[in-house]
Design brief:
This protein is an alpha/beta fold. The chain is globular. The protein has helices at 10-23, 95-98, 101-104, 106-114, 153-157, 173-186, 206-214, 225-233, 258-282, and strands at residues 30-34, 46-52, 70-75, 77-78, 81-82, 86-90, 118-127, 137-145, 190-197, 219-221, 237-247. The protein binds hypoxanthine. Residues 124-126, 203-204, 220-222, 245-246, 248, 256, 261 line the site of hypoxanthine (HPA).
């Protein structure tokens, strides 16, 4: 699968961006990616403009339940406050769906080209840290990239110097503080930790989870890290939050399933939505 990377060059990007520019009235400043089962959040946008992913030239579409593949432009309003213009991705495409890193990170490049300078990514993840419970929210403070995948286009854009410095973290400290303050302002418990990215699509074995715990992972999932890498490389400010949808393999008696992931997401949706709203209303450019 990896041998078939398609080159997403500027022409391909320009086409998608050109199409979307013709559909919107304001350029987005904040991009929000909604993970498994969290897509409903997009219904809170004021004056929404919805674009199905399938209508956008070269845009990847998802096959996974709970990832509905729509882009929604708009703002959030609450009392006297209005957010910066938003681009919300309802669902994402995962590496395990098409094996194309360039393709799954394309949405972030599109958001950036449209004007977004902040990325807020969300996902559902398995909890590894023994202090975590199902339904917790975790601010991703850093990640472990155990997929060993790195977006190819960076090499293509500068073949003479393909190396990237992993400066401490790709995550923006100011935004992390904003997330923490938003949670404490609302009285929402927020865990903090490192997210480990694996390719999937199989869930892990007990032994793998034990290994991940020992190397310092607090949560595990199959997304988000490629988006974070691309966004920070593009100079965007990035923050990301995991919904701990289940305890990782071997940490509970329950058998893992996508259904459980979706059920927990549905249970915690309101709290998560409240937190996302508060964060987005506080983001300034
Ligand atoms: N493992 C990997 N990915 C996941 C999990 C998990 O336990 N839960 C949600 N996404």
């Amino acid at each position: 699968m990896e041998g078939t990377q398609v080159l997403i060059d500027n022409q391909v990007l320009d086409k998608a961006v050109g199409y979307l520019s013709s559909r919107i009235t304001r350029r987005p400043e904040v991009a929000l990616v909604l993970g498994s089962g969290l897509g409903d959040f997009a219904s809170q946008l004021v004056n929404p403009i919805e674009v199905p992913a399938g209508a956008i030239p070269s845009y990847p579409t998802s096959t996974v339940e709970g990832h509905d593949g729509r882009l929604v432009f708009g703002t959030l309003k609450s009392d006297e406050r209005e957010s910066l213009p938003l681009l919300v991705f309802k669902g994402r495409v995962h590496f395990y769906e098409n094996g194309l890193l360039d393709s799954i990170t394309f949405p972030v490049r599109v958001a950036h080209s449209l004007g977004a300078r902040v990325l807020l990514a969300t996902n559902a993840a398995g909890g590894i840290n023994p202090a975590f419970s199902e339904g917790d929210l975790m601010l991703i403070e850093d990640f472990i990239n155990l997929s060993f995948l790195n977006p190819q286009w960076q090499v293509q854009s500068n073949p003479a110097s393909p190396f990237q410095v992993m400066r401490g973290s790709h995550i923006d400290e100011g935004l992390s503080n904003l997330v923490t303050e938003s949670a404490s302002g609302l009285g929402i418990k927020l865990q903090h930790g490192s997210y480990c990215f694996l390719r999937g699509p199989s869930y892990e074995t007990k032994a793998e989870i034990e290994m991940l715990r020992r190397i310092g992972a607090d949560a595990v999932g199959m997304s988000t890290v490629p988006e974070i890498i691309i966004a920070s490389k593009l100079g965007m400010r990035v923050t990301a939050i995991s919904l701990i949808s289940n305890l990782a393999a071997g940490l509970s008696d329950e058998r893992l399933s996508h259904k459980e992931v979706a059920q927990t997401a549905s249970r915690v949706k309101q709290v998560f939505s409240a937190l996302l709203t508060e964060i987005i209303l506080r983001i300034k450019n």
